[in-house]
UniProtKB/TrEMBL annotation:
Descriptive protein name: NUDIX hydrolase
Gene3D superfamilies: Nucleoside Triphosphate Pyrophosphohydrolase
A Gene Ontology molecular function term of the record: hydrolase activity
All copies of domain Nudix hydrolase, residue ranges: 29-160
Organism expressing this protein natively: Jiangella anatolica
Pfam families reported in the protein's UniProt record: NUDIX
InterPro entries: NUDIX_hydrolase-like_dom_sf (IPR015797), NUDIX_hydrolase_CS (IPR020084), NUDIX_hydrolase_dom (IPR000086)
Cofactor(s) required for function per UniProt: Mg(2+)
SUPFAM superfamilies to which the protein is assigned, alphabetical: Nudix
Sorted UniProt keywords: Hydrolase, Magnesium
Domain of life: Bacteria
């Protein structure tokens, strides 16, 4: 969706619905959201980031900013982290992650980043502030360097690629 289409959709929606009981909306719980991209190389290995700010591997992507969709957050973070605009396709996984420590519960989307050829991979310039390195690994090899929930989420994303369906998960495990 383009910015112009989004703006038109917002205008077409009209005035926000009024609360019948003042303050209800402010009392509702808040969730965060994030979007990441599952990029693979021609051998089927997954592109992982070695972040500068944590010991575990991550896929390109990140948390949504205020009033930003998970897809737009994913595209923005891919551009910031990899230094190149890459197409991001359909949603593979919608995963609910429970609260942990200071972090609220959240909804994490994994989108299909497709297969990167050697020429595209050569154009990637990782952001040195956030990314220490990039590596393509098969999921089974990467699993020991991932949080268990991320390993499960990516296994679910690979199932979604095979099935052609978007899968719902809870803490990385397919549900429903």
């Amino acid at each position: 969706m383009t910015d112009a289409q989004f703006d038109e959709d917002v205008r077409a929606e009209g005035e926000p619905e009024r609360e019948f009981h003042a303050g209800v909306a402010a009392r509702l719980p808040r969730k965060t959201a994030a979007g990441g991209a599952l990029f693979r190389d021609e051998a089927g290995r997954i592109l992982f980031l070695e972040p500068t700010y944590k010991p575990t591997l991550e896929i390109p992507g990140g948390n949504c900013e205020a009033d930003e969709s998970p897809l737009r957050a994913c595209c923005r973070e891919v551009r910031e982290e990899l230094g190149v605009d890459l197409p991001v396709g359909r949603a593979l996984v919608v995963d609910w992650v429970p609260a942990s420590g200071p972090w609220l519960d959240k909804i994490v989307f994994v989108f299909d980043g497709g297969v990167l050829d050697a020429a595209t991979t050569a154009r990637i310039t990782a952001d040195p502030v956030e990314v220490r390195g990039l590596v393509f690994l098969p999921l089974d090899e990467a699993s020991r360097r991932l949080r268990p929930s991320m390993a499960r989420r990516l296994a679910t994303a690979l199932l979604a690629l095979e099935s052609g369906e978007t899968l719902y998960a809870e803490f990385g495990r397919p549900a429903g």
